[in-house]
Amino acid sequence: MFAFANPKRFMDASSAFLPWLVVATVLTLGAGVVLGFLAPPDYQQGDTVKLMFLHVPAAWSAMMVYGLLALTSLFSLVWRHPLSDVAAKAAAPLGAMFTVLGLITGALWGRPMWGAYWVWDARLTSFLLLLFIYLGYIALWSAVEDEVRAARAAAILALLGAVNLPVIEFSVDWWNTLHQGESIARAGGPRISAVFLWPLALSALGYTLLFFTLWTVRIRTEILERRARSILLGGAA
Amino acid sequence: MIGALLLRDMRLATRAGGSAALALAFFAAVATLVPLGVGADLRLLMRIASGVLWVAAVLAALLSLDRLFQADFEDGSLDVIALAPLSLETVAATKIAAHWLTTGLPLTLLSPLLGVMFGLPPRAIAVLTLSLAIGTPAVSALGAIGAGLTMSIRRGGLILPLLVLPLLAPAVIFGAGAVQAALDGLSSGALLFLAAFAVATTLLSPFAAGAAVRLNLAG
Questions:
Q1: Residues 13-72, chain B, touching A (beta carbon < 8 A)
Q2: Distant-in-sequence, close-in-space partners of A159: CB < 8 Å, separation ≥ 6
Q3: Cα separations in angstroms, A62 against A52, A204, B45, B97
Q4: CA distance linking residue A219 with residue A84, whole number of Å
Q5: Which residues of A touch B202 (CB under 8 A)?
Q6: For residue A86, which of A204, A232, A175, A217 has the smallest C-alpha distance?
Q7: DSSP-assigned letters across all residues of B48-71
Q8: Nearest to A156 among B155, B156, B212 (CB)
């Protein structure tokens, strides 16, 4: 972790492993999607079960990304790890994207299965709140002009969100079970069988690799952008 | 010294151009607009009163929060306050207390009147008032973190709600939930959860808010 505090070393290492990461992403995500399409229709959900291979990994990635965001924020606050700032900044839009993807695929699945695109289910609601937390984080980054200040403010916000997310999750669960626990007919199919488990696992791995690929690309872009800016500023002086 | 800062902030909030009266008026105005939108059916209004009043109270409290540190930051008095032998955490805690005393407390005191206008029975009104009394300190406390983070942003008031509102979801859920349970004649632990949330946020927020102010003052 600390070895990569030096952006130069990170750039060298990442340019070496990035192509492999891309190949691995394409292979696993491709296999997951293809196997997902070939999976037989579920006896209750029919063909909509195939949305699961896009939906569940997206939701899972969105949470994983927030965990990484909080971790990198902790690194940047405690150790002033310069690459952590860049990494946290680069992760947030990806996390927001996975959250949106999870919400959209969930809505598309909810329409045929629950009869509505959106229900105020605890899971959905806390995910929507997660999206707002991501958006607030991105907005704070872009609003503070000074880069160092923006990084530290955003890191405080990210950690605040990380502390608060379990509380929010708990309160939303509590709220839902109090009011409408019985009205939501969750299509509780059988415990997941191997024909569905394999594509799901591959797809989850593929999403994770996709995130790490895009994350690496975004971090590299940010570093290059900062270099370009400092060169421009140096030329102006 | 804490007392002097508290009194100063409360005077600024309550005198001409201060935010305390405006927050109250905003609270009442929002609560008045809702029946105009959904209709005058008292049975319906009674059901939605807790949610409407809680959301209106949170928004009214947020209205004045963006200036909590920013006004002092802009006119330089925050630098003077930072030079005083008070930690920034203490300053943040004092400012949170002053904000609650001039915003959260008046909102709480006004809420029974609005509860009556929404047709709430006396027991539910008592729970509503109690829930606001317990929960509004959490709004001031979490809001202060947002205020500290956004104090150097010119249009910080626009970002602050986006930062703070998702984090305030538990307060609204437990606060309004307690009133709903009282309406249905159920017993619920909502007030206890709300109290736990309020105690935790009020105790921890001054540290985060202090850190946020410090990073914005540095450099």
A1: none
A2: A70, A73, A74, A77
A3: 15, 11, 38, 36
A4: 10
A5: none
A6: A217
A7: HHHHHHHHHHHHHHHHHHTHHHHH
A8: B212
For residue A113, the Cα-to-chain-centroid distance in whole angstroms is 25
Cβ atoms A215, A52 nearer than 8 A: no
Distance from CA of B15 to the nearest CA of A (A): 32
Contact (CB<8Å) B169/A168: yes
Angle at A38 between CA A34 and CA A43, to 5 degrees: 135
Please answer whether residues A154 and A89 qualify as being in contact, where contact means their C-beta atoms are separated by less than 8 angstroms.
yes
Instruction: Give pLDDT tens digits for A41-95.
Output: 776 777 777 788 888 899 889 999 999 999 999 998 888 888 888 999 999 999 9
Tell me the residue type at B97.
Answer: A
The pTM of this model reads 0.89
Range of the domain at B69: 2-217
Closest partner residue to A143 among B153, B211, B216, by Cβ?
B153
**What are B91's two structure tokens?**
């300053």
| Chain B residues near residue A139 by CB distance under 8 angstroms | 159, 162-163
CA distance B176 to chain A (A): 10
Q: CA of A226: how far to CAs of A83, A151, A212, A220, B117, in Å?
A: 12, 14, 21, 10, 58
What does the pLDDT read at residue A114? 79
Note the pLDDT tens digit of each residue in B37-87: 998 888 899 999 999 999 999 999 998 898 899 989 989 999 999 888 889
Q: Does B195 touch chain A (CB under 8 A)?
A: no
When scoring B47, B158, B162 by the number of chain A Cβ atoms within 10 A, the one with the most, hence best to mutate, is: B162
